[in-house]
Amino acid sequence: MEEKQLTFSQRHAQKFNGALIEMISMALFAYGIVCSEGKDGKIALAFFGSLALCAPISGGHINPAVTLAMWLTRQISTGTCLLYWIAQLIGAFGGGFFCYMVLGQINSPMVTDLNFHWIIADLCGEALGSFSFILMILIQCNPKTTFSDKPIASIILITLSLHLSRCYTSHSGGCLNPGMAVALELFQVLKTNEVERLDSMWVFIAGPFAGAIVAVIFFKLIYQPAFNRYYKNA
Fold first, then answer.
1. What is the pLDDT at residue 233?
2. Residue 172: which pLDDT band, with cuts at 50, 70 and 90?
3. Are 186 and 93 in contact (CB under 8 A)?
4. Cβ-based neighbours of 67, under 8 Å, separated by 6 or more
5. Distance CA 206, CA 2 (A)
6. Rounded distance, CA 55 to CA 155, Å?
7. Distance between the two ends of the chain, CA-based, in angstroms?
8. How many CB atoms lie within 10 A of CB 77?
9. Three-class secondary structure of residue 228 per DSSP
10. Which among 84, 63, 74, 42 is positioned nearest to 207, based on CA atoms?
């Protein structure tokens, strides 16, 4: 209702402000990931800070797979979805570049074993981890199913969900973020000429997007109806 009352210029300003903060938050998260040296606790803290920064303005996606889920549930328009994707890619690439300039290092997710069974295992891990993570986001973003209406509680729960969901992806490194994977891998290939890293990049794209789609279907067709029936009969 409130969105319809906004003028044309206000709606577009709101979209671009959201995209800008998504880009900045993605850059900070990318910087935090590279600095974390793969340590789960540090990655969670980097995500928490980035999410707390952008959640009030953009909704706190910081992930193209999350943006896809928000589009599928009609919480954002197609234009906003595309704008956020572009901003997230630029932000992640910029964060990788800044980290390289400051620290002289860069690292990105990579499937180290290209045997068929490991490719499938890593693809399933990225999909399952993204499913778990995005399902929690959908639950928290819905006023009827949320565990808490306090913003800080939601940020903590979503951060904890990311931390735990990465357990599904111990072999692939637990990226769960197509934008981060694409941007950091492309930057590392440009700097080191390790073109072979691109052979497995599709796993970090297809897995999280598949997980997001399944999470939306599960939430809409199973979780939400079951939740409503439970509280109706309680």
1. 62
2. confident
3. yes
4. 61, 76, 81, 84, 85, 88
5. 35
6. 8
7. 31
8. 13
9. helix
10. 63
Considering only CA atoms, which of 45, 43, 47, 44 is closest in space to residue 55?
47
d(CA 75, CA 163): 25
Size (the chain), residues: 234
Cα Rg of the chain (Å, integer): 18
Place of tokens 């929690």: 136
Split at pLDDT 50, 70, 90, the class of 8 is: low
**Amino acid at position 214, single letter:** V
131, two tokens:
């499913």
**What predicted TM-score, i.e. pTM, was given to this entire model?**
0.91
Tokens representing residue 148 in the block: 């808490």
Q: Are 189 and 197 in contact (CB under 8 A)?
A: yes
Which amino acid makes up residue 177?
Answer: N
**For 145-164, what is the mean pLDDT?**
92
Give the integer Cα–Cα distance in Å for 74 and 68: 10
